[in-house]
Amino acid sequence: MYNSKITGMGYFVPDNVVTNDDLSKMMDTNDAWIQERTGIKERRWIEKGSGETSSSMGAKAAKIAIERAGLTKDDIDFIVFATLSPDMYFPGCGVQIQEILDMPTIGALDVRNQCSGFVYAMSVADQFIKTGMYKNVLVIGSEYHSGGLDLTTRGRGVSVIFGDGAGAAVLSRTEDNNKGILSTHLHSEGKHARELVVEAPSIAHWVPQILEENDPNDESYYPYMNGTFVFKNAVVRFSEVIMEGLVKNSILPTDIDMFIPHQANLRISQFIQKKFQLRDDQVYNNIMKYGNTTAASIIIALTEAWEKGKIKDNDLVVLAAFGSGFTWGSVIMRW
Ligand code: UT7
């Protein structure tokens, strides 16, 4: 039996910084509200017309990850790509990466688990490596949110939160069973699918129908979030799934060297930190700079924390996420 461990990581965010004050010129919002409710000071949004997409950002992050793993694109056996903002309705972004990076005709899988996407993608990659099927799997989380947000006051409850960006990790086979991914834990509760959703375009509400109806009040193609309900579920599920991982590995919160929560809201991260009585140096947050980048948030934060020297050999690293679906999950790793 093999284990999988991260051998390389990278991230990419667009240069274009959008501050809370910038948003207050587009809609009725303000810096104080956004910082107080979410912790966000600014986010990166793709410059319109730049041609950047979820795939192109993902490819940039992936190149860094592959290089840092000491590999070349030809050493990668499989691609797992997590996003809710793909370049096309279909095919998915995984195949775009295969093309952009000029990789051999390896398999490419897209994961549609929104904020839990990176955790799900890591778990998928881990299974392929643990069974011995693949040696090096490229896992990407990338989001181009800004192109699909309602930037009027109507959409302010959602649009001030989300940012664009991408992160990537190479998961590689290790024969050291004490290192790498120790366990992953995945959950879903589809009865709450409509609490955080983009409903259209879908086969039930297809583009010709939207155009024919020409309804100025149609919000179905913008993200909808029942923020308070999502928040309340998030803090419960985050706690449960972290505890599940700790129990499975017979470890205590005090054993955690680094906890990287999905960057949904600084208040959620702080709630979890308090609940597990973690010190500030045991948790890494960067939502202040990037907003919520959904499937990319954990890997951007993990890479940044590692670049800052906050993750060292043998550290116990915990990742956890909750989001649309509802879906949630955790990854317990020994670095
Ligand atoms: O990543 C996936 C998972 N997502 C999450 O976990 C997010 C969970 N939810 C949240 O983070 C929070 O619920 C939000 C940040 C989305 C909202 O914060 P909240 O404290 O739950 O505020 P609220 O939605 O209850 O809104 C409070 C007030 C409302 O006004 P009234 O009804 O009290 O007069 C809103 O209309 O704030 C108003 N409001 C805003 N005001 C200024 C909503 N959005 C804004 C805004 N600027 N951008």
Q: Could you say which overall geometry the principal axes of the C-alpha atoms support? A: globular
For the record, the count of structural domains works out to 2
Helix content: 25-40%
Distinct helical segment count? 11
Rg is 19 Å
Portion in beta strands: 15-25%
User: What does the oligomeric state look like here?
Assistant: single chain
CATH class of the largest domain: Alpha Beta
CATH homologous superfamily designation of the largest domain: Thiolase/Chalcone synthase
Largest sheet: 5 strands, mixed
Order of helices and strands: EEHHEHEHEHEHEEEHEHEHHHEE
Architecture overview:
The protein has 335 residues and is of the alpha/beta class. The protein folds into 2 domains: 3-177, 3-Layer(aba) Sandwich (Peroxisomal Thiolase, Chain A, domain 1); 181-334, Thiolase/Chalcone synthase (Peroxisomal Thiolase, Chain A, domain 1, 3-Layer(aba) Sandwich). Helices cover 32% and strands 23% of the residues. It is built from 11 helices and 13 strands. It has helices at 20-24, 31-38, 54-68, 93-100, 117-130, 156-159, 207-213, 227-248, 266-275, 287-290, 297-307; strands spanning 3-12, 17-19, 42-44, 78-82, 107-111, 136-143, 165-174, 180-188, 196-197, 224-225, 258-261, 316-323, 327-334. α3 (54-68) packs across α4 (93-100) and α8 (227-248) runs parallel beside α9 (266-275). It is globular and about 60 Å long. The two termini are 18 Å apart. The structure holds oxa(dethia)-CoA (UT7). Oxa(dethia)-CoA is lined by residues 29, 33-34, 37-38, 115, 156-157, 160, 227-228, 230-231, 234, 264-265, 268, 292, 323.
